[in-house]
Amino acid sequence: MNYEDYYTWQRDVPGFGSESQEKLKSSTALVSRIGGLGGPLALSLAAAGVGRIILAHGGELRPDDLNRQILMTHEGIEGARHVQAAETLRRFNRDLEIESIGQNVSEENISGLVEQADIVFSCAPLFEERLLMNREAMNQHKFFVDGAMCSMEGHVLAVDPGKSACLGCLVKEPPAYWKRRFPVIGAVSAMVAQIAALEGIKLLTRFAEPAVDQMIHVDAKCMRMKKVRLVRDVDCHHCSGVES
Fold it and tell me: Who has the most CB within 10 Å: 85, 107, 168, 187?
């Protein structure tokens, strides 16, 4: 089957077409991590035709991961999550180039990972990792999308470096109250992932305008979505020196 055959319906989306499809094909996305949010997001990027995806996630699969980590299976319990995720995506899209590392992002690896990417998707549960990815994406002038959720709420922030507010404009330091474990229904994290994937596709292709300078907030309990207007902090320690 020809590569183009996969995306016939997608190219019919008004404003998308072959030009946007080629932009996705030539793009590299970094996704960290690939759990309840990053897994569905990576799958949607693969379905959309992003040419290369870098996955970063350390640790082995546990039984309590399986209510939300859709790239994994019961047979993979106690196996490396990044290996299982990469195998699932390769089976799904044989044209996709995948690189996976069994590490979470850190000061030691973040520069090299971001350097390879055109866009960075932050799907980590901890603010330390999210802020680290944001900082490095701003430093290297790479598109950045932050997705997060807790319980029945979630948010997505798309960032065009030098032109819009970044995560560092909103969060100066990791909040002391935030813990690694939090309540999650898989459908909620997957819903937030789809919004993040769409915002990333819009940043890469510009077939439609991404919601920069706005935080998209979702309350799944009452099925309400709103956009919160943001203002770029001229003294932000991540993006204040980044020019458009």
Answer: 85
